[in-house]
Design brief:
Length: about 160
């Protein structure tokens, strides 16, 4: 069986090698990936050392009074905002097995804030099979990413929004 080759006569790159080759062609995309990965590392470190209390203090999150809310409409985002958030969600989805829901939510909220979109981190529980906790991000009551279908499954306990900026 013959292996398909590229125009240069070498076998096509796959996996990590292909991603590195694409990154070399697009320095802006590389910078975005490094920024998101840096935020993941920082969020994990803060959660590991001081829990969500430390994250709340560093990022100046405040508790939003009404935890349970009806599902909101899809937010009106500019194309640039939507693109930036989709890129972050895409990268976080690829890292899903290595990034738990709380660091993922902290990173996604920070990406939204940087894009000028007010977002909230929501922490909820499911008591139907013992006890399980989950964190996700919402914009005006609309959940981002893979949590849209499962939002009704979780009972929101707390909402956290960045104070000020």
């Amino acid at each position: 069986m013959a292996v398909a080759s590229s125009p240069t006569g070498t076998a096509p790159k796959r996996g990590t090698a292909a991603r590195l080759a694409r990154a070399a062609r697009d320095p802006a995309e590389t910078a975005r990936r490094v920024a998101v990965l840096g935020k993941i590392v920082a969020a994990r470190a803060m959660i590991a050392t001081g829990g969500f209390r430390l994250v709340r203090g560093v990022h100046r999150y405040r508790t939003v009074e009404q935890a349970e809310r009806p599902l909101g409409p899809e937010p009106a985002l500019t194309p640039a905002q939507a693109r930036e958030i989709q890129r972050a969600i895409g990268l976080l989805d690829r890292l899903e097995k290595r990034v738990s829901c709380l660091p993922r939510s902290v990173v996604l909220e920070r990406v939204c804030r940087k894009a000028g979109v007010p977002a909230e981190i929501v922490i909820g529980v499911d008591r139907s099979k013992g006890f399980a906790a989950h964190a996700w991000v919402e914009i005006e009551g609309y959940p981002l990413g893979a949590t849209e279908a499962g939002r009704a499954h979780w009972n929101a306990l707390g909402r956290f929004r960045r104070d000020g900026r």
